[in-house]
């Protein structure tokens, strides 16, 4: 597999500083980024099991104890009329919970299994917000001649495309065999948003995290299929440098020049920017990099590349 990064002229800093930005979901150009439909926090089977194995034994131990003032949250104690306090504290904890079913631990626990929309809670946005400051995405692609991407991501063909070496250690930093972080993953494209239950008893524990990553970080609408995206995801706290700009935190991860194979110049690249780019690429650290100039095909709607410098 080949991997490429489309860049506008302003992003020459990637080559100058040998660093790539890993972007939070809120700053990516797809509003559905990291936004599956999270219908439930947990499924009913999980809450029933948790109640049976954990809460019920605890309740059994205290159910026959008389209710006392310390069992009532301090902010609610004064709300109990004096003339009913004696009656209230004649109840056992078990009797009190049965009198107010809504506050019974089993019913409170079952609220987590109710669809968020029924509670007026947007679990999906809560999830995106919680992951937004944890994970950063480097978006790459398998193609270097996509006309639409040259227009969108290189400022109308004025910028450049970097080809990276997928075998370089930079793209292979997984810590476990099933680790989806720190390695290249192809994006899956779907007609519908994934519908998730965050803790699903139908999925074994070992596969649960993988399922979440696939559906949250690696699934996009089919509208983006033309991009043939390959993602590299890092934990933002591992970044080498953080820059604050226009209210954003920009997380940069450094790379070794050996990670770059080729650079392709846009068909509308300006002479001044091209000369500046070639000055950088002629430095000793980049002398191994092949350089190609993009030109318009005379017979097809495609871009062809002419050798500027090829290292044999």
TrEMBL record:
It comes from the Bacteria. InterPro entries: DUF2971. Pfam families: DUF2971. This is DUF2971 domain-containing protein. It comes from Pontibacter populi.
